[in-house]
């Protein structure tokens, strides 16, 4: 009997990671042929990537306009391949602006859609949950409060927990990390996760570089930039004050965070990774002024960062849009470096966040839920 074709899709670096782990778990359970949109981690997990997520990974309403041709091209490739292979299910990972439209097209082909890592409609545009109800057979939620949100809207829902729980760990001690990257063990380390998209780096790096100059003046800190997949190394390495000790590391994010005394983290999945590693952090983010103006009426939450949303209170400082300035970033980081009580208070909040993320094994639970759906289809055939 030939393997069961399944479409699996991710539109950014974090989604590529989550989908790759799910792909591995599915292949351990069933004979499946996985294809779709993704990146290097999905390829390594055995997924036939027919369009790379780097073609569609953009952020912001105004930024999307310039990428419409590549977005439409990726959509056509996926739909065409689904028509050819006829998968019973498509597993779509977050990235709602693209995946909700893809789900509509796939549903018209008779493909049933599964949402893996549900979009955060509880935080903004909550009315769009109705679209999920119409187009998806099941939603696999990673936060406990999402189960009620999607379930109350009539979406068949399972809470699986967060896939990063149990998977985020350092492989080097601080001493080994410093030795490998020629860092001074006696001086503070500030680790920077500036974002993975070009648009994020364009908005963030100028402010980060000036903030780090100010931090160094008062603390003699050294700086480590954890580069994401597809990052432009030139954007990360150039423009720094010559007096600063700056290291750019690749494929070392968890070790770089674990070695840090404090971190500057772009809002998103990286904040959850830092929380799991118990790293005091300052969360930053900025989009273009026009995008911010268009999005503001749609936001329904008091907080922006995932850590604070999970805790339902301010655990980590958020410097978003106009608050994201060199002086404010430097002030918050220096407070964490100089005040042990501030660090401990923040870590206490991070412990609460970790508790709310659920137990390890989320990817296995997601794979089991999808296998159960596949088995149901096979049983009715």
Low-confidence stretches: 59-63
What distance separates the N and C termini?
A: 14 Å
Given helix and strand content, the structural type is alpha/beta
The value of Rg in angstroms is: 21 Å
Number of strands: 13
Structure notes:
- There is one protein chain.
- Helices cover 48% and strands 17% of the residues.
- It is an alpha/beta fold and 381 residues long.
- Residues 59-63 have low confidence and may be disordered.
Topology:
Elements: E1 4-10, H1 13-29, E2 32-38, H2 40-44, E3 48-52, H3 61-65, H4 68-85, E4 89-93, H5 96-108, E5 112-116, H6 129-135, E6 138-141, H7 144-152, E7 157-159, H8 174-180, E8 189-193, H9 198-219, E9 222-227, H10 233-237, E10 246-250, H11 253-258, E11 262-266, H12 269-276, E12 281-285, H13 289-295, H14 306-311, E13 318-320, H15 326-338, H16 340-356, H17 362-380
Parallel strand pairs: 1-2, 1-4, 2-3, 4-5, 5-6, 6-7, 8-9, 8-11, 9-10, 11-12, 12-13
Helix pairs in contact: 1-17, 4-5, 9-15
């Amino acid at each position: 009997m030939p393997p069961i074709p399944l479409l699996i899709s991710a539109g950014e670096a974090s989604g590529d990671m989550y989908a790759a782990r799910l792909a591995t778990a599915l292949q351990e359970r069933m004979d499946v042929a996985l294809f779709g949109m993704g990146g290097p981690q999905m390829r390594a997990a055995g997924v036939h990537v027919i369009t790379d997520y780097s073609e569609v990974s953009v952020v912001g309403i105004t930024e999307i306009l310039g990428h419409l041709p590549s977005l439409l091209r990726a959509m056509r490739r996926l739909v065409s391949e689904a028509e050819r292979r006829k998968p019973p299910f498509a597993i779509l990972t977050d990235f709602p602006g693209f995946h909700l439209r893809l789900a509509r097209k796939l549903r018209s082909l008779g493909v049933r859609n599964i949402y893996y890592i549900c979009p955060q409609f509880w935080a903004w545009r909550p009315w769009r949950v109705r679209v999920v109800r119409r187009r998806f057979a099941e939603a696999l939620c990673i936060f406990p409060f999402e189960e009620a949100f999607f379930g109350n809207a009539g979406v068949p829902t399972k809470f699986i927990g967060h896939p990063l729980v149990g998977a985020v760990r350092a492989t080097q001690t601080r001493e080994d990390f410093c030795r490998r990257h020629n860092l001074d063990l006696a001086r503070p380390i500030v680790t920077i996760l500036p974002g993975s998209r070009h648009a994020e780096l364009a908005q963030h790096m100028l402010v980060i570089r000036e903030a780090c100059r100010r931090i160094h003046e008062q603390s003699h800190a050294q700086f480590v930039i954890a580069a994401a997949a597809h990052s432009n190394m030139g954007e990360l390495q150039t423009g720094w004050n010559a007096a600063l000790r700056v290291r750019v590391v690749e494929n070392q994010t968890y070790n770089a965070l674990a070695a840090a005394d404090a971190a500057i983290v772009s809002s998103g999945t990286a904040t959850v990774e830092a929380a799991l590693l118990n790293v005091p952090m300052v969360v930053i983010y900025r989009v273009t002024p026009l995008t911010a103006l268009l999005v503001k009426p749609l936001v329904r939450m008091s907080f922006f960062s995932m850590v604070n949303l999970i805790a339902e209170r301010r655990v980590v400082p958020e410097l978003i849009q106009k608050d994201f300035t060199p002086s404010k970033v430097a002030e918050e980081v220096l407070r964490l470096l100089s005040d042990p009580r501030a660090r401990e208070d923040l870590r206490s909040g991070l412990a609460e966040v970790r508790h709310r993320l659920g137990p390890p094994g989320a990817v296995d639970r997601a794979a089991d839920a999808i296998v159960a759906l596949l088995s149901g289809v096979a049983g009715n055939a």
